[in-house]
């Protein structure tokens, strides 16, 4: 049972990616109902609260934080195995507030996404630093847009060249896990735009096996953590 | 507060253009920048999207921000628009195609042009080098020149 919470308040992309554009949130006695993709995948996003795709959420930090608090307090997720929170890039209001509000819930950890480029890694190093400062465990880093294989001639191109060694080198230097690398595949973008599962659209893609390996490593990490917690209790 | 300081306290000297690079979104940075620049009558905003619907979806909201804050929209750029394989010249639309142009049409704002994915552009950015000097023959070069020209043409006209 998985819950997906989109806290990119200004650019909520999750509804479209999940094929839920245009859905609305229903309120009941037990709180706000998530919008379900499948029985075992519920989603919440500010996108469901906006009536038009042109509506802008022009809010400063404190108002964004207020909505994030409501999402955590008022959404009736039911009994879940995983709560996944999608944040915008950065180390600002959304990140600080989610860490603060979930303090007592013991966040299992963070997955940080980067491209191979140094300009991206520079941002990610700050994000890793943020995690250390707020004592947030890091599950690992994923290198996205990692190489492109031409569908015609099958040659590989590094569209985003890892000029400083990519995520691999950074992870070695900072002693965090590299969970995996996801190659560029036009089908990924298409699936997101159509709101379809990439796994069902392109099961044979090298990106699919990359994703599956990354997911497995995250699950193993979480299972390990729970075992350790049980031992302590 | 930092943004206000950057605008008011930095000794820029005499300028022809001040370009402000913001993160994506419609939040503090954007509100503060518009407020800080208002006394200087900003020429307008350039919005950059990829061709994909998820990106266009965010930029639609950013267009509304511009409307609501009275910021003129100089135009939309469609970035990461196609990749030409250096080995066989096949063009692949890794992030789809046309979304930026459609959005500009739908919103009634100028479409400034498409920038293709170009490893030489990425390389220059990584090394902090002048792309225009280093790679004038690459695929992104004519695209960027055309966009720059559009912007210059657009800003030399009086705004409404």
- Alpha carbon gap, first and last residue of chain A: 24 Å
SSE ordering of chain A: EHEEEEHEHEHEEEHEHHH
Strand percentage of chain A lies at: 15-25%
Give the spatial strand order of the biggest sheet of chain A: 4-5-1-6
Number of domains of chain B: 2
Biggest pleated-sheet summary of chain B: 3 strands, parallel
Highest CATH level, the class of the largest domain in chain B: Alpha Beta
Supply the CATH superfamily name of the largest domain in chain B. Answer: P-loop containing nucleotide triphosphate hydrolases
Low-confidence stretches of chain A: none
At a glance:
The complex is a heterodimer of chains A (233) and B (160). By secondary structure, chain A is α/β, with parallel strands linked by helices.
Task: Summarize the SSE layout with pairings.
The complex is a heterodimer of chains A (233) and B (160).
Chain A (H helix, E strand, L loop, with lengths): L1 E5 L7 H4 L8 E3 L2 E3 L1 E4 L2 E5 L15 H14 L7 E5 L6 H9 L8 E5 L3 H16 L4 E6 L4 E2 L6 E2 L8 H9 L3 E4 L4 H9 L3 H4 L4 H27 L1
Parallel strand pairs in A: 1-5, 1-6, 7-8, 8-11
Antiparallel strand pairs in A: 2-3, 4-5, 9-10
Helix pairs in contact in A: 2-3
Chain B lengths: L1 H8 L18 H10 L7 E5 L3 H17 L3 E6 L4 E2 L6 E2 L6 H9 L3 E4 L4 H9 L3 H4 L5 H17 L4
Parallel strand pairs in B: 1-2, 2-5
Antiparallel strand pairs in B: 3-4
Helix pairs in contact in B: 1-2, 3-4
């Amino acid at each position: 049972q998985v819950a997906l919470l989109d806290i990119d308040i200004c650019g909520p992309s999750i509804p479209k990616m999940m094929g839920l554009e245009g859905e609305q949130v229903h309120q009941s006695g037990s709180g706000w109902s998530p919008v379900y993709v499948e029985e075992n995948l519920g989603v919440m996003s500010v996108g469901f609260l906006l009536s038009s795709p042109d509506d802008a959420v022009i809010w400063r930090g404190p108002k964004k934080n207020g909505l994030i608090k409501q999402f955590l307090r008022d959404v009736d997720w039911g009994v879940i195995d995983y709560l996944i929170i999608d944040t915008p890039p950065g180390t600002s209001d959304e990140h600080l507030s989610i860490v603060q509000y979930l303090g007592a819930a013991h966040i299992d950890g963070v997955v940080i996404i980067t491209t191979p480029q140094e300009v991206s890694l520079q941002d990610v190093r700050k994000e890793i630093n943020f995690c250390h400062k707020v004592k947030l465990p890091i599950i690992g880093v994923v290198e996205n847009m990692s190489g492109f294989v031409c569908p015609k001639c099958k040659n590989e191109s590094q569209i985003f060249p890892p000029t400083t060694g990519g995520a691999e080198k950074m992870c070695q230097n900072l002693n965090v896990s590299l969970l995996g690398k996801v190659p560029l595949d036009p089908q990924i973008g298409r699936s997101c735009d159509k709101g379809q599962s990439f796994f069902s659209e392109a099961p044979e893609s090298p990106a699919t096996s990359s994703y599956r390996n990354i997911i497995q490593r995250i699950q193993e990490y979480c299972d390990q953590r729970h075992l350790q917690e049980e031992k302590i209790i | 507060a930092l943004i206000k300081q950057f605008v008011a306290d930095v000794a820029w000297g005499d300028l022809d253009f001040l370009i402000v690079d913001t993160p994506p979104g419609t939040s503090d940075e954007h509100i503060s920048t518009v407020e800080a620049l208002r006394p200087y009558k900003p020429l307008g905003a350039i919005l950059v999207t990829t061709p994909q619907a998820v990106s266009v979806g965010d930029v639609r909201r950013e267009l509304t921000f511009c409307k609501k804050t009275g910021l003129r929209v100089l135009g939309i750029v469609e970035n990461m628009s196609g990749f030409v394989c250096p080995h066989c010249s096949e063009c692949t639309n890794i992030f789809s195609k046309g979304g930026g142009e459609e959005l500009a049409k739908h919103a009634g704002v100028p479409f400034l042009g498409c920038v293709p994915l170009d490893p030489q552009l990425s390389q220059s950015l990584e090394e902090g080098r002048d792309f225009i000097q280093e790679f004038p023959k690459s695929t992104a070069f004519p695209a960027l020149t055309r966009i720059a020209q559009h912007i210059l043409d657009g800003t030399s006209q009086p705004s409404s």
